[in-house]
Input
Amino acid sequence: MKTNHLFILAVIVVVLAACGAGSKKSNNMEKRTQVKIETTQGNIVVELYNETPKHRDNFIKLVKEGLYDSTLFHRVISQFMIQAGDPDSKTASDTATLGGGDVGYTVPAEIVPQFIHKRGALAAARMGDDVNPERASSGCQFYIVTGRKFRETQLLNLAGQRNNQRTEEIFNELARKHMKEIFKLRKANDQEALMELQDSLEAQAYAIKQEEEPFMFTPEQISAYTTVGGAPHLDGAYTVFGQVIEGMDTVEKIEGAKTGRADRPVMDIRILKATVIE
Output
């Protein structure tokens, strides 16, 4: 750990990340709203979860306002997901870089453990933790998971990586609180003091992590990701607010599109119209 952490102490890198479910049977037996998304590749029907009411209501509002009509699937990554909902994509040129459009607000995170990133999950894109520690969702951009199947041993390894990553996150948080001291020691070229500080922060990070519950995939997650597939590394970090119930063949067509810069399909794939199924 020491070599990597010395680098972190030298410079804390801030990364902007944009994303960018299925579920156990819900206890909420209320009727779920369905939305039909007509695209140039075919139709997709999604069902919205009542357990994520802020995201459900916002999605319905935008659909009824016609915000998604004529927008593009602007980011497509094979064996991962297809992303849409950027209002700037409606009139974008062929060379425009998309993904930065929004509606002027975010939606508070509604991360429900039972709704996971299995194949067909409908989830909200967002900015990364460094600039968005509350994990608030984009007000309009969404993605549909395609993913891939995993072996159980791969999931166990991924869980271990998640726990190590959490320790690193805690270390970075502690390091940020000591930035003035770090810069002062670096200016003085006091390597001994830097090493002492690093050892102290490592010990603190380890102690804090030990008090937390370790991340583990549930039997339900393991079953889903080994049989249906998905993107398990996103679980617990993004809000899953619905699921494709019809049209995964259309999702697969979009997923298979040839892409260029910034994972944008070379040929435009457009949402013609989105409507709430009454």
Remarks:
- The radius of gyration is 21 Å.
